[in-house]
Amino acid sequence: MISQVFILSSQGDHLIYKDFRGEAGSDVVNLFYEKVTALTGDQPPVVMRHKDVHFVHVRQGGLYWVATTTADTSPFTIIEFLNRLTALVKDYCGSLSERSVQMNFALIYELLDEVVDYGYIQTTSSDILKNFIQTEAVSSKPFSLFDLSNVGLFGAETQQSKVAPSSAATRPIQSSRDQGGKSEIFVDVIERMLVVIGSNGVLMKADIEGEIKVKCYMPTCSEMRIGLNEEFSIGKSQLRGYGAAVRVDECSFHQAVRLDEFDSLRILRLCPSQGEQTVMQYQLSDDLPSAPPFRLFPTIERDNGGRLLMYMKLRCDLPPKSAGINVSATIPVPKGSVSLSQELSSPDQSAELQPQSRAVVWKIPRFPGGTQLSALFKLEVPGFSSASMLEVGPVSLSFELPKITATGLQIRFLRLSPFQPGPAQRWVRFGMRTFDSDHEVGPGPSEDPVQDCFHWWIHCLLYLSQQDDVCWTESVCCLTS
Amino acid sequence: MPYIGSEDTVRDLRRVLSNPNVQSDQLRYRNTILKVIRLPSLVEYVEQPLTAGLRDRAACVRRVAVLGWAKLHNLQTNSEIDAAVVNELYSLLRDPDPVVMVNCLRALEEILREEGGVAINKPITHHLLNRLKECDIWGQCEVLRILQRYRPQSEDELFNILSLLDVSLISPHPPVMAATLSLFLSLCSGLPAVGLAALERVRGPLLAACGNTSREMQFTALCHIQLLLRSLPGLMGEHYKRFFCGYAEPAYIKQRKIEVLVELVNDDNVAILLDELRGYCTDVNISTAHAAISAIGRIGRSYSDKCLEILTELLGLKQEHITSAVVQTMRDLVWVCPQCSRTVCSAVEGCEAEIQDSQGRHALLWLLGVYGEQVSSVPYTLEVFIDGVRSEASVGVKMELLTATVRLFLCRPAETQDMLGRLLHYCIEEETNMCVSDQALLYYRLLHCGIEETRKVLQCRRSDPSLGVLIGRPAEPINQWSYIFNTLEPLRPGAIETESATIGGSPEHMTFDPKPNNDLSDTLSYSFGKTVRSGESEHVQCPTIFRCSPQSLQAAMQLVNIQTLAFTPPHTLPWRVYLYTNTQNKHSADTCHGTLILGELLYTGEEIQKKSKDEENVGVEARQDKREEEREEDTAEGRSEKERVKKNTAEKGIKVTLKQQPRDEKALKGFLSVLTTVLHALSSE
What sign has the CA pseudo-torsion B545, B551, B552, B558? Predict the structure, then answer.
């Protein structure tokens, strides 16, 4: 049972406040904000309590989504509900941000009215909700010339018309009504991975979590068929032929997916409802089908002036046509490091020392495959001792790789049934979000006699941090089959 | 308040509600009914539309109308419950729309709250279970929650229900999975084996929830996994890699994962786990680093060498907070495993300069005081502390300093005498804090009584090394935590008590108290009572056995596959040994698993012991009674056992009390004969 739901901005502004049962006053909103901002870093913030009021909240899109409830409620239910609510708001408003919530407050109140009655969750299915929601979403996007670039000159079929801008999938689902004919389906294949590589280059841990998401802008959609690679296999026992190229350990599907053609033809059949849904989730661990996309070769030494010299060579092993974007390497450095001087190989890169997180962050906006970048960082560390070396590393690397999946999962085709009213555009995009390769680099005995008497090691992690939003710049491609 | 309207709105609503056909326009009806919940003045106008709404053809009208009755009831709580409405709501449980059905349950729960909520009988239960598939996940959760109140009448019915629920137990939706498990556990509270099997079954979905994209969901799943591990410590053993922390994870998730990792340690993965934990010790977040360090300390209770190596290496970092945390961890570790004292003493030497916080210094002083004779530089270290005592702010540190200095004086008087004098003088004459000056006075007067007296008082209590085996937490029965499963309780900080959450202070005053030998039997008898259902006691004539060394006893027992749990030192009375064995039953093929036998050997030299033994038995039984009423026959058995004990203690010899689960007479007899042989062989040596 939910007693109140409210949405706060990160500054504590009340964006949405809805009281379902009238049991507690609205002062709890301020109370919540005081509590949540007073928390120290190590306290778990998810559940907080003030007398009889229990706050459960999630953070999405930089906002606090809070429900107040009683002690014996299921946390799984409340958190799943709040997550579902954010997904609904995202579907209806296009994107999740303070601005979009502010502009669409009427729509969100209407949604809440439909979704919850007297504190009881009624329905969150977008199929049912679409019959009741009347308000149009207000889109915050200003007019942009780039939107016009998709229009072929004199109707000519250009390469551009096969590519949709990344913003195409972040519009509200309802606006299709007046724009007429813009019935589109987006299918995203997103994989997050975490790889840890030891100092000797040995793969120590690999984990891939992937999902196929369908975002449907059609008010009614008949059956849709998604064909995966035919050599796709689940578990270790199902290998076919000469070892399948695409293998996952575990796989689960949305309840609406029908799997009668999955075993023989690897086809998923479903009738997507309006909005976004995760059709399939899969996991693969310990056994990477391809080499990690990045390799790091760090060298770390001290110069005579007591400065720490870190020479980083980063190689991108992707095929030359693809590129990693938003690559950022985080190198933990000893406590008390004061100044950083850097030599980077190209001007678009940047690096800075972040004293509160005790790390040097090296950012590379675009990193084409088959190339190599290097950087030299010089750090002033007062009171440097040999033991401080223990604090250097592990290096973590985060990046996004559009158009690539680590497991090799592909979408062969995307077909809508012939009874579809009117033509629909189908878009497929792929991406890998998080790659974690963790290099533990033991530099071996060094020439420096001071360091030699300690057995020291540096442990470098290449990580891809999990970002909440992938931003796809040019990565969207259309499948026209 | 969004709903309290002005005069105009009220008038408008009243007008709408007076229209006899208000429900013909579905949306308008819904909006009107949704609005009136806060306006008691409108009650009389609402009843009629609500009654009509219950019979409306549109499902969405019925949904609103059903909950409308609950709102109406809460608006006028003291009015009579309208039986007609209640009946109508009960009959609407058969409504074709699943949401209406679930709303009826919710409304009845509210209206009949004083009578204990909606009545759940057999037909209703079966109806709800059969329609479970039609509901969405929210409806399923609600139905599963309400069904917890139902008690099946026969075992057949129970198993039918359980097999129906099996599908939702492995549901990919965490809320449904959790609600089903909760129902499972409440249904089979009398069948622990079924409950454990259910826990095994939810392992997959729970692990998947740990990998959910939502951090909050991950956190919830982790907290509930900690609950499950209390009953089934081996549940996640092979999946330990799923609990490794990601770099970008928030501190609260990392700390929970570290807590889980400690529980998963076994011989195969200990090296990998420690390697991983070492990486967390230098985390930017200080409390995560502390959590990792104390986790290593807890693993150190079973794998002390490797852990001490890592902890010593961490001291080399010369980081204030790390050193302080390491010293506190070492203090706790040394208390449980006194055999590591040598390594610890050499490691902590010379790290006093880095420790700034009072808890760290407190821990260091305790170590220096207790192991003063093993570390050569202690007097110099203490001298620095004593010289700085004027600027010392923490009362705890001052008191620990007093104790440490007096203790050091006992073993190294020549070096310490002068500084002890200075310290006592300062504390008695100049110190303003009552506690500190009182303690100083106490020590001063104690020293007047003579060195032997002082030694008697200040002799540090050492824990018994044989306690080490008992550190592993015994598996708790599921009932211990099943009532908080799937509530907000496990998500609270500190809800799942981690062992020895010490906040400064020396381990002597901690809750994790060392058990002197008398208490030892108490704890063990306690765990006896918890795990074992049937008891048997026997008498073996070999009074010299208590003189033989623990090592030879242990070795001899292990030859015949009997494991010793703990024993009192030789030559103490009463002398006790606790042991257990697992026998495989090869004769009968239908019972595939063997039986567990727990045994207590007791040598009470004299008859005086008889009394204490009786008391103990009573104590155990009292606890058993409290724990489970269903074991009445067992306690009866226990009583007869006690009588037998009384008869036996008249003779001199070793009393053997055996407890067994499941019962197997043959195995028990066999075990007893083997044990007797071993004891005789040992005592004849």
Answer: positive
pLDDT band at B223 (very low <50, low <70, confident <90, very high): very high
- Contacts by residues B147-152 (CB-CB < 8 Å, ≥ 24 positions apart): B147/B120, B147/B183, B148/B182, B148/B183, B148/B186, B148/B187, B149/B117, B149/B120, B150/B120, B150/B125, B150/B187, B152/B187
Task: Assess if residue B639 is contained within a domain.
Answer: yes
Q: Contact A117/B63, CB-based, under 8 Å?
A: yes
- The beta-carbon neighbor of A79 closest among B37, B214, B487 is B214
Q: Which band of pLDDT confidence, cut at 50, 70 and 90, is reported for residue B460?
A: low
* Structural domain range at position B3: 1-119
Residues A118 and A19 in one domain: yes
Q: Is residue A107 located within the same domain as residue A38?
A: yes
Q: Is residue B645's pLDDT more than 50?
A: no
Report the Cα–Cα distance between both ends of chain A, in Å, rounded: 48
| pLDDT of residue B416 exceeding 80 | yes
Q: What was the pLDDT predicted at B674? A: 78
Predicted pLDDT of residue A43? 64
Mean pLDDT of A362-391: 81
Q: What is the pLDDT of residues A292-313, one digit of tens each?
A: 778 878 787 877 777 888 888 8
Q: Considering only residues 7 to 36 of chain B, which have any Cβ-Cβ distance to chain A shorter than 8 Å?
A: 27, 34
Q: In what order do the strands lie in the sheet with A307-316?
A: A294-302, A307-316, A372-380, A339-344
Q: Residue A437 above 50 pLDDT?
A: no
Same domain, B437 and B559: no
Contact B246 A124 (CB under 8 A): no
Same domain, B578 and B449: no
How much of chain B, in percent, has pLDDT values that exceed 70? 74
Residues B552 and B677 in one domain: yes
Q: Which residue has the higher pLDDT, B128 or B609?
A: B128
Cβ pair A18:B2 closer than 8 A: yes
Q: Are residues B551 and B451 in the same domain?
A: no
DSSP symbol at B42: G
Asked if A19 reaches chain B (Cβ–Cβ under 8 Å), the answer is yes
Q: Which of residues 134-193 of A touch B (CB under 8 A)?
A: none
Q: Which domain holds residue A206?
A: 184-290+403-479
d(CA B669, CA B349): 55
Mutation target among B216, B258, B312 for the A interface, most CBs of A within 10 A? B216
**Taking CA atoms, what residue in A is nearest to B272?**
A204
Same domain, A203 and A300: no
**Chain B contact present for A55, CB below 8 A:** no
Longest dimension (CA), chain B: 103
A contact residues 326-355, partner B, Cβ 8 Å cutoff: 330, 332, 335
In-domain check, residue B388: yes
Tell whether B319 is within 8 A of chain A (Cβ): yes
pLDDT at B524 over 60: no
CB-based contact A47 B287, cutoff 8 Å: no
Confidence at residue B415, expressed as pLDDT on a 0 to 100 scale: 87
> In this complex, is the C-beta atom of A49 within 8 Å of any C-beta atom belonging to chain B?
yes
